[in-house]
Amino acid sequence: MAEGRSYSRGEWISAGVFVVVVLAIAASCMPGGSDDGGSDSGAGVVSESPASRSADTGNGDGGLPVTAARFAEWPFTVDAGVLECEGGAVTFEPPGGPRYAVNGTAKDAGYPSVMPIWADDKTLGNGLKVDISEVLNKGLSLC
Questions:
Q1: What ranges in 9-86 are assigned the alpha helix state H?
Q2: Which residue, among 65, 62, 69, has the nearest Cα to 94 in the 3D structure?
Q3: Which pTM value belongs to this model?
Q4: Which pLDDT score is estimated for 8?
Q5: CA–CA distances in Å: residue 127 to residues 25, 54, 75
Q6: CA-to-CA distance for 82 and 65, rounded, in angstroms?
Q7: In a 10 Å sphere around its CB, with 0-12 CB exposed, 13-18 middle and 19+ buried, how is residue 38 labelled?
Q8: β-pairing, 80-86 with 89-93?
Q9: Nearest one of 133, 142, 139 to 21, comparing CA atoms
Q10: Strand residues in 27-86 grouped as ranges (E)
């Protein structure tokens, strides 16, 4: 067996983060499921009925006010905002706007990139970002 190159811890972490981001993007591109807003995919996602979603959002336009305290890992540099999903396009709007694209569908719809408010992961370094998948999954549950 030929000797291979040794990879540093940082290179392994970078590769792992890349895989997570690719999987999150791929998941955001998958069909949303049934017309009632639920998900057919199961996989640990709790389906909400439209009635429970309305009670959770506090507004009729489908937006969900969210704060850093609501998530295990908050990926943004702002403490709060409104998470929305329209046609599979997940967006996040901090106070004062604008609405940022959280997934590729929203980016393709013309929303600006979330990069200006996406926090760097200080434990990983190298400009790598905090995992956004929990917020993305919550946003997709609003579709």
A1: 9-28, 50-57
A2: 65
A3: 0.58
A4: 60
A5: 19, 37, 13
A6: 4
A7: middle
A8: antiparallel
A9: 133
A10: 64-67, 80-86
Q: What is the mean pLDDT of residues 19-42?
A: 42
What are all long-range contacts of 25-32, with beta carbons under 8 Å and residues at least 24 apart? 25/103, 25/104, 27/133, 27/136, 27/137, 27/140, 28/88, 28/90, 28/102, 28/103, 28/104, 28/105, 28/136, 28/140, 29/88, 29/103, 29/104, 29/105, 32/88, 32/140, 32/143
Q: According to the model, what pLDDT value does residue 90 have?
A: 98
Q: Summarize the confidence of residues 17-45 as an average pLDDT.
A: 42
How many Å apart are CA 115 and CA 56, to the nearest integer? Answer: 27
